[in-house]
Amino acid sequence: MLPDSLLASSLRVFLDCQGGVRGCDRNFFVQEMGFVNWVRDRMDSDVHLLLTSLTAGNGGREITVNFLGQKRFAGKVDTLSITTLPNDADDRVRRELLRTFQLGLAPFVARTPIATRMRLGLTNGVVARAINPRAVKDRWNLWLYRLNGNLSASGEQLVRNTNLSTSFSAARTTDAWKINLGVSNSYNQRDFTLNVPSETRPGTRDTVDVTVLQRGANANALIGRTLNAHWTLGTKISVGFSEVLNQQLAMRISPAIEYNYFPWTEAQSHQLTALYYVGPNYYRYYETTVFDEDEETRFNQTLLLALSQRQTWGNTNISLEGSHYLHDPQRNHVTLSGFMDLRLGRGFSLNLRGSASRVRDQIYIAAAPQSERDILTQRQQLQTNFRYNMNVGIGYTFGSIYNSIVNQRFGNLGELGGRRFGFGGG
């Protein structure tokens, strides 16, 4: 156990896991790394640990740890990274992060009084190294497959919900090519028991059972070819059906090109991309549309601009997407969406999330008017000129910056217990 005199002068570290990095378990790191002081605000820290992650070619994540010196360590910066497998247990991921933290913080700790008590050594056995895909024989040829199935059910006396979804995907990622293939299916059934006025016996009420089905399926392919550090060329193909969208059959093929202002090697910290695709769309409808069409082939084009940043002050993700059908530019759709998580000062954080759309491209809407029951149950998508959603959150934390004691007692009160003690929702 280190004396308090040494702990008081030890390195102060702020842990910043942006985007919900898997395995970023602060309590675990506090318990395992007692030789540093874990502070709650980056402005109080000597070292800012900034973690970001991207999907790796093996289906896991590439987690990058940035060691950003502050105050007396200003200007001292280092970067380490690890790659996880898709089925790695959380404990394995957090222990790899722990090892990475210890290695990256060692040069900082070496300049504190606690350095006199520190030792750096090797573990027993062979140290694992990252595998170079070009140096091994892979019987899967870098292909990664995933099969998912989900079944959920909920209900009460008058309402019951059943949801079933399945999906299969295959992906192959190399420096030159990115190939994603997938099929998915969804089944949603909602059963309602209604008590309505009787049509045959005035003054009485009848019990009526109503079932609402929403089914859909889709198969898609995305093939991308790297041209250089900024440009990518590819094609998107999809075929499927959707009862919600009145589409008995929908087929699309869209050649695409993408440009990133920053080199893709810097994707962990920032991206500024422009994606353009254009191509034909074939639709066959369940019901005749408001434009008196039972089937049609229409070309449309789409441009998507997106900015993504992960910095010490927070992270942002903003996109502007516009599309229209070539036969009628008035049939268009524009969406602005974004997320910002900002750290504006000591203990103060602000997060914004939302989107707004101008909708003019619902050529699939059925001409037949929907009944009141269909509207309330949203059996099919309703005609609209706009959509929006938004969320604003603020937080302010103050008090001790050093308290890193971990106490998990009363951590699980259950749904009813949480409500009684004021910790639950509703």
Description:
The chain has helices spanning 4-8, 26-32, 90-109, 372-377, 414-420, and strands spanning 12-17, 37-38, 47-55, 61-69, 77-83, 143-155, 159-173, 177-197, 205-226, 231-242, 247-260, 270-285, 295-311, 314-325, 328-345, 348-359, 386-396. It has 426 residues and is mainly beta. Among the domains are: 4-117, Rossmann fold; 227-396, no CATH class. The protein has a twelve-stranded antiparallel beta sheet with strand order 6-7-8-9-10-11-12-13-14-15-16-17, with no helix packed on it. It has a five-stranded mixed beta sheet with strand order 2-1-3-4-5, covered by helices on one side. The protein is globular.
Compose a concise summary of this entry.
Helices cover 11% and strands 51% of the residues.
Q: How do the helices and strands follow one another from N- to C-terminus?
A: HEHEEEEHEEEEEEEEEEEHEH
| Largest sheet strand order | 6-7-8-9-10-11-12-13-14-15-16-17
Largest sheet report: 12 strands, antiparallel
Uncertain parts? 126-131
Question: Beta-sheet strand percentage?
Answer: over 45%
Could you tell me the radius of gyration in angstroms?
27 Å
Structural class: mainly beta
Number of distinct helices: 5
Q: What value does the average pLDDT take?
A: 85
Based on CA inertia axes, which overall geometry fits? globular
Termini separation: 45 Å
Would you count the extended β strands for me? Answer: 17
| Helicity, as a percent range | 10-25%
